[in-house]
């Protein structure tokens, strides 16, 4: 599915979020701005938007982007090469539940709009914790469900009825954007996700809702 939508992924993100996704990513990355020459893993890197932003804004980072979709990585590599950042960002194909890295490797790990796609949420988060250094930081940016009227109703209508139609016209894979709505509904957002992190041994976990609760930043430490 993700291979199929890879050529249209960036355009759709801009259109479907009205460009707000860029601001969400910027806010998430700011949480890492005090790190000095950090080694960072970007899980579910997709077409590398977060990896590229971190390469430009953080202090001499060394970034590895990991994704299960080869086609997404192909698009991301072209963007990296075009930006002249191949010496800062490297890409590898793999899955969150079986990370190909040693224990205690990374100063920080980011996951933007990918954690809800983990085949096994707890196993993926446990793997991330394994490869984080002690006191290493986890930053998760993910869609969440607004709870207040009328944003809850508008959000559900847009995601269930409008978004799949736009996805069908532009990406040629309507199932992908039907899946997006279903995956957001199934994801344990807010306090429920914090409870999952706590149960796996993460500490100092926080949730910061953005844009009336459409998206949230989760910040945690090993």
Name the features:
222 residues, alpha/beta, Rossmann fold, 9 helices, 45% helix, globular
Outline the structure in words.
The protein is of the alpha/beta class. It has a single domain (2-146, 187-221), classed as Rossmann fold. It is 45% helix and 23% strand. The protein is built from nine helices and seven strands; from the N terminus they run αααβαβαββαβαααββ. It has helices at 2-5, 9-17, 20-30, 49-57, 70-83, 121-131, 151-171, 174-186, 191-199, and strands spanning 39-43, 62-67, 89-93, 106-112, 132-143, 203-210, 215-221. It has a seven-stranded mixed sheet with strand order 3-2-1-4-5-7-6, sandwiched between helices. Helix 3 crosses helix 4 (49-57). The longest helix has 21 residues, at 151-171. The chain is globular. The model has no long low-confidence stretch (mean pLDDT 90).
Task: Offer a concise description of the structure.
The chain is of the alpha/beta class and 222 residues long. It has nine helices and seven strands. The protein is globular and about 45 Å long.
Q: Secondary-structure blueprint of this entry?
A:
Layout: H1 2-5, H2 9-17, H3 20-30, E1 39-43, H4 49-57, E2 62-67, H5 70-83, E3 89-93, E4 106-112, H6 121-131, E5 132-143, H7 151-171, H8 174-186, H9 191-199, E6 203-210, E7 215-221
Parallel strand pairs: 1-2, 1-4, 2-3, 4-5
Antiparallel strand pairs: 5-7, 6-7
Helix pairs in contact: 3-4, 7-8
């Amino acid at each position: 599915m993700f291979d199929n939508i890879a050529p249209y992924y960036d355009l759709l993100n801009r259109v479907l979020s009205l460009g707000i996704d860029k601001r969400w990513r910027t806010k998430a990355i700011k949480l890492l701005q005090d790190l000095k020459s950090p080694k960072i893993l970007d899980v579910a890197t997709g077409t590398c938007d977060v990896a590229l932003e971190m390469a430009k804004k953080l202090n001499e980072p060394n970034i590895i982007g990991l994704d299960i979709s080869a086609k997404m990585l192909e698009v991301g590599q072209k963007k990296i090469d075009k930006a002249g950042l191949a010496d800062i960002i490297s890409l590898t194909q793999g899955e969150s539940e079986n990370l190909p890295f040693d224990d205690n490797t990374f100063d920080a790990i980011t996951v933007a709009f990918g954690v809800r796609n983990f085949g096994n949420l707890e196993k993926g988060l446990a793997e991330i914790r394994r490869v984080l250094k002690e006191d290493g930081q986890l930053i998760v940016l993910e869609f969440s469900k607004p709870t207040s009227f009328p944003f809850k109703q508008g959000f559900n209508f847009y995601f269930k009825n409008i978004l799949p139609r736009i996805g069908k016209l532009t990406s040629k894979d309507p199932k992908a954007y039907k899946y997006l709505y279903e995956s957001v509904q199934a994801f344990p957002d807010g306090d429920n996700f914090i409870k999952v992190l706590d149960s796996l041994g993460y500490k100092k976990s926080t949730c910061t809702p953005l844009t009336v609760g459409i998206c949230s930043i989760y910040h945690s430490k090993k």
